[in-house]
Write a structure and sequence with these properties.
This protein is of the alpha/beta class. 26% of the residues lie in helices and 28% in strands. It has 2 domains: 255 residues, Ribonuclease Z/Hydroxyacylglutathione hydrolase-like (Metallo-beta-lactamase, Chain A, 4-Layer Sandwich), CATH 3.60.15; 42 residues, no CATH class. The termini are close together.
């Protein structure tokens, strides 16, 4: 089914009527990974038709309020709805203290398991893995500890030749074992069918999505994000405000495009726009002069990765 990215919020610290701060949802199969969770996120989720109960894991890039102020509200709503399935949060250590204090102040004991996974600010590491994908984190260059994330699908299992399945009327369990790499033994005829002879490699190419939230221009991130299918990179300002970008440890649209070009990514998605830009055309055009495959994030956008 592949991956889909839902743009929930793409503004910077000051929200606007038509643009809230950072929040994205990555859909894979039937569940969602939430990436950052600004104020107003849960209302936008509802507007986009994303069922909150389908959110299984939440990744917070750093602890500036425009990236997490909506989180406690969302966790509280899960509780009010009587959620039972666990919620996993991946973030810097201090966020757990913030959540615990908020829940204690409200005398709230969540009715579902909340599992906190600490991420290290200066490490490149795998922080989540399952049968179909894994998630890496890496450091960004910002005014407080900030991490980027890479979501990588794994190679899909080989396909079994249909004629072979029909000929031997294979059970679902047997099919799964063959897809996992086992040979097939015909016990009646005492014949072994080698896995390579009865399967074909999947034609699906695994997808990779990299998320670089608040960060100054940093070529150090290029090795981590090389050749991804979609790169989200902040572009808070245009180049005529490069000095302001440097002061605030942010990037310009041109700098985001330069990183995309150096990393040889397939597509670039820019966002985290300053509220001074009510129209993003200038930001997008500036990036496209360097990296033509640039798209400007807009709320409600859904992107096939």
């Amino acid at each position: 089914m592949g991956l889909k990215l839902f743009v929930i919020g793409c503004g910077s610290a000051t929200p606007m009527e038509s643009r809230i701060s950072s929040a994205f949802a990555l859909k894979r199969e039937t569940d969602f990974f939430l990436i950052d969770c600004s104020e107003g996120t849960q209302m936008r989720l509802k507007n986009m038709g994303i069922r909150m109960q389908k959110i299984s894991r939440i990744f917070i890039s750093h602890l500036h309020g425009d990236h997490y102020f909506g989180l406690v509200c969302l966790l509280s709503t899960f509780h009010l709805f009587g959620r039972k399935t666990p919620v996993h949060i991946y973030a810097h250590k201090m966020l757990k203290e913030i959540i615990d204090i908020q829940m204690k102040a409200g005398n709230t004991t969540l009715c579902y398991p909340l599992v906190f996974h600490e991420i290290k600010e200066n490490e490149h590491s795998i922080i989540y893995e399952d049968d179909t994908m894994y998630v890496e984190t890496f450091p960004l260059l910002h005014s407080i500890p900030t991490n980027g994330f890479i979501f990588k699908e794994k190679t899909r299992p080989n396909n079994i030749c249909k004629d072979f399945v029909n000929q031997y009327n294979l059970s679902s369990e047997t099919i799964m074992r063959i897809k996992a790499g086992e040979d097939y033994v015909d016990t009646e005829k005492n014949v072994v069918f080698k896995n390579a002879d009865i399967t074909r490699p999947s034609s699906y190419k695994p997808k990779k999505f990299a998320y670089c939230s608040d960060t100054a221009y940093s070529e150090a991130i290029v090795p981590f994000i090389e050749n991804v299918d979609l790169l989200y990179h902040e572009a808070t300002f245009m180049s005529n405000m490069k000095h302001a970008a440097e002061e605030k440890s942010h990037a310009t649209a041109a700098q985001a495009a330069q990183i995309a070009k150096m990393a040889k990514v397939k597509r670039l998605l820019i966002g985290h726009y300053s509220s001074r830009y009510t129209n993003i055309d200038g930001l997008v055009e500036e990036a496209r002069t360097i990296f033509p495959e640039t798209v400007g994030a807009e709320e409600g956008m859904i992107i096939e990765i």
